[in-house]
Amino acid sequence: MHKIGSALAASVIGLAATQPAMAGFEPGSSNIQFGASAVHTQGTDDGNISADVSYGYFLTQGIELGVLQGLNWQIIDDADDIWSASTVGFANYNFGGPDSTFVPFIGAFAGAVYNEDDATGTIGPQAGAKAFINDTTFALIRYRYEWFIEDLENGDLDDNSSDGNHVVTVGLGLKF
């Protein structure tokens, strides 16, 4: 699974890098992103398939604030599959100017993960890059690490760092 994800990410970035565009982001611009990811849990026959959509608004040329809505389907061997959704706010710093065709970013997110039975908090860092295909369309690759806060009602902030997830998302975005 890791090799397929790496090859797909390289293909998306390679395609975007071969196309001429002078796009970047300016203060007041917005973007919407559509992404998908797949995860295979190490040492098990379990995995996840996820899709997400996000909206971002640029306060400045570099500072982007936004919200991401995700849907996850956990495929469990010899058991019932489980769905979950997540709603997180994020803040990213995007590098590059208004004419940049390749825009790397770093940031952080915080929010909630929930399903019909439970809810938990999530927080963590993220990084990635947006590579413009034309003036309004870009390819996206994003990595984030999700830490979970087990019990939102009691403010349980125990060290659960070893219980987190590595998530790599590949997608497309539109600037407007």
Layout of secondary structure:
Blueprint: H1 2-17, E1 30-40, E2 47-58, E3 63-75, E4 82-94, E5 102-114, E6 119-132, E7 137-149, E8 165-175
Antiparallel strand pairs: 1-2, 1-8, 2-3, 3-4, 4-5, 5-6, 6-7, 7-8
Notable characteristics:
176 residues; mainly beta; elongated; 8 strands; eight-stranded antiparallel β-barrel; Porin
Explain how this protein is built:
The structure is a single chain. The chain has one helix at residues 2-17; strands at 30-40, 47-58, 63-75, 82-94, 102-114, 119-132, 137-149, 165-175. The chain is mainly β. The protein has a single domain (2-175), classed as Porin (Beta Barrel), CATH 2.40.160. The chain has an eight-stranded antiparallel β-barrel. β5 (102-114) and β6 form a beta hairpin. It starts with a helix and ends with a strand. The model has no long low-confidence stretch (mean pLDDT 84).
Short description:
With 176 residues, the protein is mainly beta. It has one helix spanning 2-17, and strands spanning 30-40, 47-58, 63-75, 82-94, 102-114, 119-132, 137-149, 165-175.
What is the string of helix and strand elements?
A: HEEEEEEEE
CATH topology: Porin
Residues in helices, as a percent range? under 10%
Structural class: mainly beta
Reading off the top of the CATH hierarchy, the class is best stated as: Mainly Beta
Q: Residue ranges: pLDDT <50 for 5 or more in a row?
A: none
Q: What is the second-level CATH architecture?
A: Beta Barrel
Beta-strand residue fraction? over 45%
The largest sheet, given as strand count, sense and whether it forms a barrel, is: 8 strands, antiparallel, barrel
The total beta strand count reads 8
Gross morphology: elongated
- Overall domain count: 1
User: What distance lies between the first and last C-alpha atoms, to the nearest angstrom?
Assistant: 34 Å
Q: Strand arrangement, largest sheet?
A: 1-2-3-4-5-6-7-8
The radius of gyration computed from the alpha-carbon positions, rounded to a whole number of angstroms, is 17 Å
Number of helices, where a helix is a run of at least 4 consecutive DSSP H or I residues: 1
Question: What is the averaged pLDDT score?
Answer: 84
